[in-house]
Amino acid sequence: MKEISLLVVEGNLASENKNFKEAGIQTHTESLKESIANYHNKINYSVLNPSSEKNFNEIISKLESFDGIVWGGSSLNIYNDTPEIRRQIYFMKECFKKVKNIFAICWGMQVAVTAAGGVVRKSKNGAHIGIAKNIKINSEGLKHPIYKDKKSLFNTPAFNFDEVETLPKGTTLLSSNPVNNVQGLQFEIGVSKVWGIQYHPEITYEKMISLINFRKDRLINFRKAFENENDIDNHIKNIEQENQVTDKHSRMQELKNWLQYLNEN
């Protein structure tokens, strides 16, 4: 096992991460590091939040030194076009010029797609709140290393209200489900090979339940995803049942496969 130099990109705003910490919930960067530790113990980490970090340009100058980038989730919606979101898209475009391997998770995939010329919109078929069901790996996905040893039909932790509408030129679609046609993809741009997924193998169902409770008022009153707290409680019971039958390593297979790819290339 070789030492890997890895940049973890934090998609959430600093204010959202502060809220997470006050609620006793791991940031997405913390979840990523904890999950990666299951499969690789020789990681030289750097962490960047493109929306707020002062060392933004310093990191850009060092991008070629990283073996790979993992870009995680966020509560942002990319079509809102705020300065913070524009910074993330700009940084992704810089990564395309200098980083060979990018693993783009949920929000990370949406940033990558947008930076590469694709389009992301609000999902027309509903949302994934804590869980995505019946993701099917297509014939291209079955041949792709991201899905090595993965069941061809699976459920997984997920939390998203948006979807990829238009794929970047040259993208290969790898998996879909009834809510999001684009669940897994690969494309190459600049020097980068981008593996993208719309769900969260690196986040536990327990954390997803914590996020649902943390966002309870927002989910009922703003997102209109649930009618009331009883509706949310029933949804959480469904996730708890799924958690009882889910194997930890099967859930994280995509993360394991990407790390193995980095280790071998």
Explain what the structure shows.
The protein is an alpha/beta fold. It is globular and about 50 Å long. The protein has helices at residues 14-22, 28-36, 56-61, 83-98, 107-115, 139-143, 205-214, 216-222, 229-245, 248-251, 253-264, and strands at 4-9, 43-48, 68-71, 101-105, 119-122, 128-129, 132-137, 153-156, 159-160, 162-166, 172-176, 184-189, 192-197. It has one domain: Class I glutamine amidotransferase (GATase) domain (Rossmann fold, 3-Layer(aba) Sandwich), CATH 3.40.50. The strands form three sheets. A nine-stranded mixed beta sheet has the order 2-1-3-4-13-12-11-7-8. It has a two-stranded antiparallel ribbon with strand order 5-10. It has a two-stranded antiparallel ribbon with strand order 6-9. The protein starts with a strand and ends with a helix. Helix content is 39%, strand content 23%. Helix 4 crosses helix 5 and helix 7 (205-214) runs antiparallel to helix 9.
